[in-house]
From TrEMBL, chains A, B:
This is Magnesium transporter MgtE. Gene3D superfamilies: CBS-domain, MgtE N-terminal domain-like, SLC41 divalent cation transporters, integral membrane domain. It comes from Nitrosomonas cryotolerans ATCC 49181. Its main location: membrane. It is a multi-pass membrane protein. The keyword Transmembrane helix applies. Belongs to the SLC41A transporter family.
Amino acid sequence: MTKINNQDENQEAQTPLQRVICLLHKYKLVEGFVNLQEKPDQALTQSPVQKQNLAELQCLLDKLHPADIAYVLEALPLEDRLLIWNMVKAEHDGEVLLEASDAIRETLITDMGNTELVAAAEQLDADEIADLAPDLPQDVLEDVLWALPITEREQLRAAMSFPEDAVGALMDFDVITIREDVRLEVVLRYLRRLDELPDHTDQLFVVDRDEHLKGVLLVSRLLVSDPETQVAAVMTKEMVKLHPNDNAQQATYAFERYDLVSASVVDVDDKLLGRVTVNAVIDFIREKAENEALNLAGLSEEEDLFAPVLKSVKNRWFWLAVNLVTAFIASRVIGVFEDSIEKLVALAALMPIIAGIGGNSGNQTITMIVRALALGQINTDSAWKLIAKELGVSAVNGLMWGGIVGLFTFIIYQNASLGLVMTAAMILNLLLAALLGVLIPLTLSKCGRDPAIGSSVMITAVTDSGGFFIFLGLATIFLL
Amino acid sequence: MTKINNQDENQEAQTPLQRVICLLHKYKLVEGFVNLQEKPDQALTQSPVQKQNLAELQCLLDKLHPADIAYVLEALPLEDRLLIWNMVKAEHDGEVLLEASDAIRETLITDMGNTELVAAAEQLDADEIADLAPDLPQDVLEDVLWALPITEREQLRAAMSFPEDAVGALMDFDVITIREDVRLEVVLRYLRRLDELPDHTDQLFVVDRDEHLKGVLLVSRLLVSDPETQVAAVMTKEMVKLHPNDNAQQATYAFERYDLVSASVVDVDDKLLGRVTVNAVIDFIREKAENEALNLAGLSEEEDLFAPVLKSVKNRWFWLAVNLVTAFIASRVIGVFEDSIEKLVALAALMPIIAGIGGNSGNQTITMIVRALALGQINTDSAWKLIAKELGVSAVNGLMWGGIVGLFTFIIYQNASLGLVMTAAMILNLLLAALLGVLIPLTLSKCGRDPAIGSSVMITAVTDSGGFFIFLGLATIFLL
């Protein structure tokens, strides 16, 4: 484990970010109003005070954990970010790149020369290089591949071959293997000959001559057992074995349920390939949750907070376009009923209420179902029960909110039949929302697509167009 | 660590859930069409085949990890859930309750007698009982408190005193402490006298006579170091120290950044109180992410998939009511312009497009800002930069999509000025969305409220009412 900030050493209780920003300000604003655009390569003209501030900043950066540096870089506007990035020690470059989020990593890599990039990548393990690989220029990647020892090169090739959501992409190769026929005392002596253990070593892997996994020796068992015992006597045979092509999401559930720190990864013949550790799992969980939140809000991918305007536009255009298409369709549905609206203009003011509540209710249902699908908790039996339940909830909500809306309409417009049409339209649109709120994610999932992506947009489209159609249709039939 | 399912032992590659459901079906459907409402207390009339199926089910349940049992219970409709719950071994009750999600736990606890509950709670550690406490009946909790040894009772009282989002609520008390002036060999002998180490023991805590934390001895250091060395020579003094009143969210970031397995919790005098382990952190991250997703979709809290209809209605009414209020307001904004709509009915068909795209764009901005706020990456300086950037994105999007929408309007309605009004309204509403998309979460956060809750509803309300007002207002001024 690398250096960790002792929180007590910082008496002002400032976060690393606040300290960096404070020093940056001091550096840039010294001697009255200095031009904010000043660049570090103008250092020749710097005053002694500025030089001292810069030295203080350098000293702070040298002490920061790479993850903290990545965090600070992420929070800084592009110009300041590159100033700080150029001050980071070259030996930390690789780890900072690894810790930075995709959008930030891109801006940092763009700023680096090829030799710098190769040097940075070479500081990392094979599985870590594989994480960076998609963002590296092709020629850098080839240089790195050739510079690696043959085993690591093979590992890197293997790690790069797995899709992002497979266990193989989370796997690392830092496993300590032992044989089952030795005494614990021998294991302890073997460990003592190592300089350090890989991070997150909570278990040693017991393998036979052909690397087949026989069991695991928990470090906690090793520590409490008599050194004269044989490994075979204290090793655990019941353990979680992952396969590199398993779904990574399922593996994270195993970590959560069984409170794992690490788990073995084996091939079809039970040969040990590597392991997955809990820190990779946490990163995966966080990234997955964030991506879902971003997609729900209509962002295609994570966005640099200070991305140039056009880059942001590119990241956001897709879901805006989808939204525009559904809005056009809803608009045409209303267009069909323009005659009715002309005769009874109150319809125009009332129709967004029906559509809005329908969308909200549909999204409530969708969220429940998507979560249950992700956990694998829905089968054919329960699907029918769920539809029945959601229709029941919608019927109750429809009567309740529909009643209120109907009353409101009656009071405002002094028109009882208009109120009844509102109530009926609300009930019908909520029932539609419930039915499709269950069916849309189930269908997407049956077709092998991720129900978390796009379900929300689809249900809103249905409840908008459907709501307008139901309400204006009922009004045309019963009121005109 | 408790029992873990060996995935290989199950040749049919079924999940625990699938196996339980399959056995449940066999049990219930044996001998043709047996009444599905059959209850386990009618067991007296069971056929030998049914008894055998029941025994097989019992055998499967006995082998399952408590977390798997909780998962299976969650996926079953209420009736089946209680049937299975009554078959779970009493000694697993406590752990299953702990693993189950809040909504499911409630249904299980309702089904248990007070003595059963006390027995279940007594199997758990103080920090685990504290997690269950809010769901336990008051008299059960008191019985449990009195049955505990004095140290644990104090721990339980302490653990219960922290709010859910404080580090204290994640803390456990399973720490192994050592002194700095002993040799590692003594530490190893001391550990060997224990039956087992607490889960997730990756470090031993070095304290002085008054329990002040001096450093930590990493187990991995212990294993690779010469047993003759003193603890003081190999212990780490730079470590993460949490305080029980720290924000739990910030602590999870420390685990993520520094790849921790456990971290110490100390009081203001640096006295060791307990530790936080990575499994508690994972549960917290997952729960937090889920709650955010639920709130965004308009659900107040996690809902049992098979909750009774009225219970679901209760969980969902709040956000529907909020939505209804904002829809009413938007409806009244339209109502103001009824004369204009009567004169130019196309306005009614076009206005939802302006409101819809504005809402979508506003939510994109909100999502970016809420995430950056959660990470503490926004300060006064960057706030202005962000507003400028978001306004820029909106201007580009407004010109682009507004242009398309204007063209579409011109083609459909053969009315150039109507098209221009659409374009102008789109640009203005997107600018409004950008401005408030930054200001709403920043203001909520300044007022000490969680910007993740309610921001999305507020921005949609603004872009709906605002969009209608801008579009209908412009139309009234320029077209009529």
